[in-house]
Design a protein that fits this description.
Elements (H helix, E strand, L loop, with lengths): L6 E3 L5 E3 L5 H4 L2 E6 L1 H4 L8 H16 L15 E6 L2 H9 L8 H24 L5 E6 L7 H16 L3 E6 L14 H10 L4 E6 L19 E2 L21 H14 L4 E5 L3 H5 L6 E3 L8 H7 L6 E5 L1 H8 L10 E6 L6 E5 L5 E6 L15 H8 L13 E3 L7
Parallel strand pairs: 3-4, 3-7, 4-6, 5-6, 7-9, 8-10, 11-13
Antiparallel strand pairs: 1-2, 9-10, 11-12, 13-14, 14-15
Helix pairs in contact: 3-5, 4-5, 7-8
This protein binds adenosine-5'-diphosphate and the ligand N[C@@H](CCC(=O)OP(=O)(O)O)C(=O)O.
Length: 405
């Protein structure tokens, strides 16, 4: 597949710009995310009919179909990566729970039981179309640690090369509240980056971004967003449906990650998945704005949470903002929080403004002894290994390089 910036190849050799809906029918590799709200019945149980309906649409796209129209590059079939919520919902019935649990331990138990059920349902549904699925459970850590995301990337590439539909969810049973994505929206955007998707489709219970809460009389769907700043004034809430997590807020965070990385996004309701994939006027289309960035920098910029804050003096802020320098111990005035070497941290200027994010080379136990000292002095006193950068330039992403809102 051709991962190219700002567009996807059509079979006529032309490029469907990632700034228009033409990118959807032309996309060779698509990440589709379906939220809990679209997979859950009012009683909190998994909606198997909705799951099968989605699989029918996705399988048709994988197979390629005349229905795509003769001018469509994807008629030879596309690769689909599915990011699906629904594990907790699928665990309610088997565990005999009266309602969807709210406490973390019971949610983890429900997700543990439900994830198996969920994948079994997808396995059956895709098998009806002669397709196999492969379960991939990710944690936020998998998107931060270089060794982990490289593993995830390799595994997803192999699944796709084997013609398998990867089915991704967060590894809910083992993730703690602090380390969780919680919503699957950002996970989907990061997965889209990981597999270098040509497009991301976010399926939910509302047919797009509205110019205000959709329940408000007169609220209208916004069909096209050229850049996210155009919708900066739109009121969105973090409260989703009864079962969803993160509401429209996490969807717009996902949109920021994907579009900033050169991947166009369609946000619509699950029932309109086929229309969205065909490039029809449904939901909201978000044009790609940025160019594809390196995996490493994207992971650092969008790490699920930072473990600490490193305070810089003015000189260090200037050096770091210059874009070429690493952060040295001499420019650090204070470290806050508990973190290990390799954890993501925020870099903060003397005015309290966040300058950027980076992977810190020392743990919070070691760092205080090094602060304000020159690397030369550190080497003299503490020996080799202590004369290195606090955050190496390659592990550092500046704030104005655009990280999550
Ligand atoms: N401006 C807005 N436009 C559209 N939907 C919005 C907006 N603000 C808040 N929402 C809410 O976001 C909800 C979708 O989020 P959520 O329930 O988390 O979905 P999912 O489970 O699919 O991830 C919608 O039901 C809608 O009520
Ligand atoms: N990972 C959880 C879903 C988390 C969640 O609710 O996400 P979403 O519906 O995308 O807002 C599950 O499978 O139940």
């Amino acid at each position: 597949m051709s991962a190219r910036r700002g567009g996807v190849a059509g079979d006529d050799g032309g490029v469907a710009p990632a700034s228009s809906r033409a990118a959807l029918p032309a996309a060779r590799r698509i990440v589709v995310k379906i939220g809990s709200s679209s997979l859950t019945r009012p009683d909190g149980h998994l909606d198997e009919g909705a799951l099968r309906a989605l699989v029918d649409v996705l399988a048709a796209r994988v197979a390629g179909s005349a229905a795509d129209g003769p001018a469509v590059a994807a008629r030879d079939g596309s690769q689909i990566v599915l990011v699906t919520s629904g594990a907790v919902a699928a665990g309610i019935g088997p565990l005999g729970l009266p309602v969807r649990p709210r406490d973390l331990a019971t949610m983890q138990a429900a997700a543990s039981v439900g994830q198996g059920q969920l994948v079994a349902r997808y396995t059956e549904a895709f098998a009806r179309h002669g397709l196999r699925v492969g379960q991939v459970l990710l944690t936020a850590e998998d998107t931060v640690r270089r060794s982990r995301y490289a593993n995830a990337q390799r595994s997803l590439e192999k699944l796709l090369a084997l013609g398998v539909v990867p089915v991704i969810n967060e590894n809910d049973a083992v993730t703690t509240a602090e380390l969780k994505f919680g919503d699957n929206d950002r996970l989907a955007a990061l997965a889209a980056h990981l597999v270098r998707a040509d497009a991301l489709v976010l399926l939910t219970d509302v047919d797009g971004l509205y110019d205000g809460p959709p329940s408000r009389p007169g609220a209208r769907r916004i069909p096209h967003v050229a850049q996210l700043s155009d919708v900066a004034g739109v009121e969105v809430t973090a409260r989703g449906s009864a079962v969803g997590t993160g509401g429209m807020l996490t969807k717009l965070q996902a949109v920021r990650i994907a579009t900033g990385d050169g991947i166009p996004v369609v946000l619509t309701r699950a029932a309109d998945a086929a229309a969205a994939l065909a490039g029809e006027d449904t939901g909201t289309f978000f044009a790609a704005t940025g160019r594809r960035t390196t995996a490493r920098r994207l992971w650092i910029a969008h790490a699920a949470g930072t473990e600490g804050r490193i305070h810089l003096d003015d000189g260090a802020v200037r050096a770091v903002r210059g874009g070429l320098a690493s952060l040295l111990p001499a420019g650090v005035t204070k470290a806050e929080g508990t973190f290990d070497a390799g954890d993501p941290v925020e870099l903060v200027g003397p005015d309290g403004v966040v300058v950027g994010r980076g992977l810190v080379a020392f743990g919070s136990a070691d760092l205080p002894a090094l602060l304000g000292r020159t690397t030369h002095a550190l080497r003299e006193e503490l020996g080799e290994g202590y004369d290195r950068e606090v955050v190496h330039r390659d592990d550092l992403v500046l704030e104005d390089n655009g990280f999550a809102p």
